[in-house]
Design a protein that fits this description.
By secondary structure, the chain is α/β, with parallel strands linked by helices. The chain has 17 helices and 13 strands. It starts with 9 loop residues before the first strand and ends with a helix. InterPro entries: EryCIII-like_C, UDP_glucos_trans.
Length: 456
């Protein structure tokens, strides 16, 4: 681990509780530590060791806001009583993201105050993950200590409202005419008023209680508009353009690149790894399927992919299950041309793959593009509907528009990606774009700018 440099600004880095947020933010944290920054991470108590292991100090959220993935059902049992779909989604928005703001705010205050008390002459910069709303009151004058600069960090699809996009969520394409722009504006107004009305009211009330200004505007645009900078961790071509976004919204090209870790060594890989790196037959198709780190119902994608590819000639299928020690149901006969692992780092397997079958998680999509691997995507939970649509718009994926596609739809999607070279060509084009960025340098430059008071 690098030695911290006393001349650098001190960093407070926030992270929404949840493995899908922790994984990329931990990568950012480690990269900053390796660059000599002293980083204090803020998330729930469950993730303390994840950040301390990469060299961070840690402040845990206390009270109502202290939860992790496995707590959700017991902490919010009323959610299960609601119909799946919009009602459950907006319940989650209100309770998991908005009502936790006071506890998140208190933890961020503790982190900033501790650093300022210990190092009164050094600037403190707050790096705020976009789904972590507890830092927003600080940016609008809430009571308490203030950082010397604020930078938003985007690790999910950009949801900032724009005349150039549809309302975020349903996976609709950008408007193509003035009539569609007007239709989308009316739709956005209805969504914000009807569906987000209660979360917005709770958000405004919390701001007021904390002594912050309550400006007009949609609360979920605030993470992009209120910080001094907002850095989206991807190349611009993998998000819809927004001509009306402020100059403070910028792109890094991706997450910072880290040196290889011991867990990425060959000793941690399955015994059959050589079948991927040195195929026994020429022009073999390697199909990789993974449902991410949240959805473990393997009937959604993993089992159907193994089934439909079982008799496909000259094909090797790799299924990664997304959690330690996970296994497939004993009743499922694994085909002869399939290999199954609980976990393999995406950065190791994707360069060898012909196609990635996934559920549209932001991280998986960005990793796949970075390695030039086209995709077949099937997702409809959280922000996955939107990410699947964006990937299809960017030309890097077939979007099956369902979280539980039929075997026939899945087969047709895989065959199309393997048959049509345009998907891989789009990935390779964006790969070249990514190569023009050095993410950690973009982040460091923006830290320097906000400390110096340089406007966007």
């Amino acid at each position: 681990m690098a030695t911290a440099e006393p001349t650098k600004p001190l960093i407070v880095l926030t992270c929404t509780p949840g493995q899908g947020h922790v994984n990329p933010i931990k990568t950012l944290a480690k990269a900053l530590v390796l660059e000599g920054y002293e980083v204090t991470a803020v998330s729930s108590s469950h993730y303390r060791s994840a950040f301390e292991d990469v060299g961070c100090s840690y402040v845990a959220i206390q009270g109502y806001g202290d939860y992790w993935d496995d707590d959700r059902e017991s902490k919010w049992p009323d959610r299960a009583l609601l119909p799946p779909g919009p009602e459950q989604f907006f319940y989650t928005i209100e309770h998991s993201f908005v009502r936790v703001i006071p506890d998140q705010f208190a933890a961020v205050q503790t982190a900033i105050k501790t650093l300022k008390d210990k190092h009164p002459d050094r600037p403190v910069v707050l790096l705020n993950e976009s789904a972590f709303l507890g830092s927003l009151p600080i940016m609008k004058g809430a009571r308490g200590v203030k950082p010397d600069g604020t930078i938003g960090i985007g690790i999910n699809p950009v949801s900032l409202s724009s005349v150039d996009t549809a309302p975020f969520g349903p996976g609709l394409p950008p408007p193509k005419s003035p009539e569609e722009v007007a239709q989308y504006a009316a739709m956005r107004n209805q969504i914000e008023t009807v569906y987000y009305g209660k979360p917005q009211a709770v958000f405004n009330s919390i701001l007021q209680d904390l002594g912050a200004e309550v400006p007009p505007g949609f609360c979920f645009d605030a993470p992009y508009l209120w910080p001094d900078r907002f850095l989206q961790m991807c190349p611009p071509s993998t998000m819809y353009p927004r001509s009306d976004a402020p100059a403070s919204v910028r792109y890094t090209g991706g997450l910072p690149k880290l040196p290889p870790s011991p867990t990425s060594s060959s000793s941690a890989l399955p015994a059959w790894w050589h079948e991927i790196t040195t195929p026994t037959t020429p022009n073999q198709d390697i199909i990789f399927v993974c449902q991410g780190t949240v959805d473990f119902d393997y009937t959604h994608l993993v089992l159907p992919t193994l089934t439909i590819c079982a008799s496909r000639p000259n094909t090797l299928v790799i299924a990664v299950l997304g959690q330690p020690n996970a296994t497939l149901p004993s009743s499922f006969p694994v085909p002869d041309n399939a290999r199954v692992a609980d976990y393999i780092p995406f950065d190791l397997i994707l360069p060898h793959c012909s196609v990635f079958v996934g559920n549209g998680g932001y991280g998986g999509v960005q990793h796949s593009i970075a390695h030039g691997t086209p995709m077949v995507l099937a997702g409809e939970s959280e922000d996955k509907t939107e990410m699947c649509a964006i990937a299809a718009w960017a030309g890097v994926a077939v979007n099956l528009r369902s979280g539980t596609p039929s075997e026939e739809a899945l087969r047709e999607g895989i065959e199309e990606v393997l048959r049509e070279g345009k998907y891989r060509e789009a990935c390779e084009r964006i790969q070249k774009e990514i190569a023009t960025f050095e993410p950690i340098e973009v982040i460091k430059e923006n830290i320097r700018e906000v400390v110096a008071g340089v406007g966007a």
